[in-house]
Amino acid sequence: xxxxxxxxxxxxxxxxxxxxxxxxxxxxxxxxxxxxxxxxxxxxxxxxxxxxxxxxxxxxxxxxxxxxxxxxxxxxxxxxxxxxxxxxx
Amino acid sequence: xxxxxxxxxxxxxxxxxxxxxxxxxxxxxxxxxxxxxxxxxxxxxxxxxxxxxxxxxxxxxxxxxxxxxxxxxxxxxxxxxxxxxxxxxxxxxxxxxxxxxxxxxxxxxxxxxxxxxxxxxxxxxxxxxxxxxxxxxxxxxxxxxxxxxxxxxxxxxxxxxxxxxxxxxxxxxxxxxxxxxxxxxxxxxxxxxxxxxxxxxxxxxxxxxxxxxxxxxxxxxxxxxxxxxxxxxxxxxxxxxxxxxxxxxxxxxxxxxxxxxxxxxxxxxxxxxxxxxxxxxxxxxxxxxxxxxxxxxxxxxxxxxxxxxxxxxxxxxxxxxxxxxxxxxxxxxxxxxxxxxxxxxxxxxxxxxxxxxxxxxxxxxxxxxxxxxxxxxxxxxxxxxxxxxxxxxxxxxxxxxxxxxxxxxxxxxxxxxxxxxxxxxxxxxxxxxxxxxxxxxxxxxxxxxxxxxxxxxxxxxxxxxxxxxxxxxxxxxxxxxxxxxxxxxxxxxxxxxxxxxxxxxxxxxxxxxxxxxxxxxxxxxxxxxxxxxxxxxxxxxxxxxxxxxxxxxxxxxxxxxxxxxxxxxxxxxxxxxxxxxxxxxxxxxxxxxxxxxxxxxxxxxxxxxxxxxxxxxxx
Lengths: 89, 619
Fold this sequence. Notes:
The structure holds two protein chains of two kinds. By secondary structure, chain A is mostly helical. Chain A has a single domain (10-88), classed as Non-ribosomal Peptide Synthetase Peptidyl Carrier Protein, Chain A. Helices cover 61% and strands 0% of the residues of chain A. Chain A starts with 9 loop residues before the first helix and ends with a helix. By secondary structure, chain B is of the alpha+beta class. Among the domains of chain B are: 121-232, Butyryl-CoA Dehydrogenase, subunit A, domain 2 (Beta Barrel), CATH 2.40.110.10; 379-399 and 425-553, no CATH class. Helix content of chain B is 51%, strand content 9%. In chain B, strand 9 and strand 10 form a beta hairpin. In chain B, helix 16 packs antiparallel against helix 17 (484-509). The radius of gyration of chain B is 24 Å and the shape is globular. The interface between A and B is medium-sized, with 25 and 18 residues.
């Protein structure tokens, strides 16, 4: 709610993303391959859009719903979000 | 009291003439005859070209006169009440061009606009035989050739694929596909090399039998690079944004068809006697009629707010357009057959009552729920946004544009495509502002301005909508199969939207609508009470509604309004609109609708007469 997450390292973002996706897919975090295309992990294009709402909640950061279409793996997304959060200062 | 957004609809309806006059080309009798022969209503569509309708498919910034989607909504509604085949056969060009309005460069969009103004028919080709509405499974491919693309594959169940001069095709531009693997190409059939495409035969359909529902198959069709609309890979995104506009217009088709069904049944019920009384005076029959009337008013409130939202709160359309496309057709799918029961056996006779028109309306309406995203697609869109909707409700988020959305007398801001969003960031302001509207109603009741029964309804509604959001908050998204209860909650959300829309409409418009032909409906909030009665009943079907004993008085009070609108040839509506049946139109339409186009600044190519000639040539 508060949007006062301090740790915006790539690693922290990646861990958080993996947790969200694992929760949604009802699998363990270890099963989520951070380099596999999200579609292959089992995330459909629509849920990939709703991830943007989670990101806005967590980091108080406005992102496009199509963010996961343009950065279609966990690692790509983590790098992208880290870049945005880092530039926010 | 004028409601300017009806001007275009009145212009078209009066231009086509009284549909009950069989001598008119666009009469009900002609439309029924064309339908039974499965013949495209070409003459009526040419008449619409002459009346200047294509100009209203093109946004003003691209050379046309589309300034208000509220106005377009009522135009589609008025055409659908005459003949759905006409509405989709002609309106399809809007659907074919909308991707350009949403996603093309301004220069491209102006070129597409010029085509529409010249009378070209444009079709939209998304679906394929093997893949239904799963757009990301499409196999039609577009491979870069250096100076353009080579298109291969087949699009099927495409409205106007054969008649169309241009076809907007969603094609796979990355072999692997995916959300960025498809692009839109505006293919000019007139410029394709012979033998590189063929139109598939018209499919026979149960409704809209005259419509050109066919397909097109490409075999090595070479199209130029400038056929690409928007960026490479932007196809799905443009389509998902475009349907937010077109789904709203689908609701208008349901409104038009239900209006005509109710009108037909009223014709019969006022003329037919049973037990020595006109049928309309029998309590059971008139309850069916007033319930249908209430459904129409609910559908109108929902559609009008959604259409105004295209201008004022476009960021929320992913929610509101799904609500309108789900709710209005689903509601009318129940309402229209119930009306048929009043006709009794006559509804089934093709040769008897009104040439079998009622049966045609029923058949035609079934298709509205299916195309442009079916019921489940729209409910699913809502389910996917539950988290954002719950957040928005709990925080009471209200987009500043809500004021313009709900206050009909306010001018609408220009539509800004850059504000369209695949997901709403602000949830849904119409619903999120409900608690404030309820508080305002309670104040009006305390002040003796609103009837006390309204307070009970408003509080009941507030409780139901709170409870719904608690259940939505507890829903955990499912990766594969969306459970039935989630669809159920999405359906309730649509009802909550409709109820909130009615409350806002009444609160913000009751002053300026307190005179004019629809004044009695507004004066004692009688339309609002009947609509809330019906919606609360559907949100809480097991028990009585919020207005105490459920004796249906809220509905009965509307019977005089319903009969007056029928008798005077007005649209069944909260707002004053005169149909062609009412006789000669007053000279009230704005000059831009007058014929011939009066402004000297209008170029010859844009005048309606020239457009009609060009379209004749094109055919």
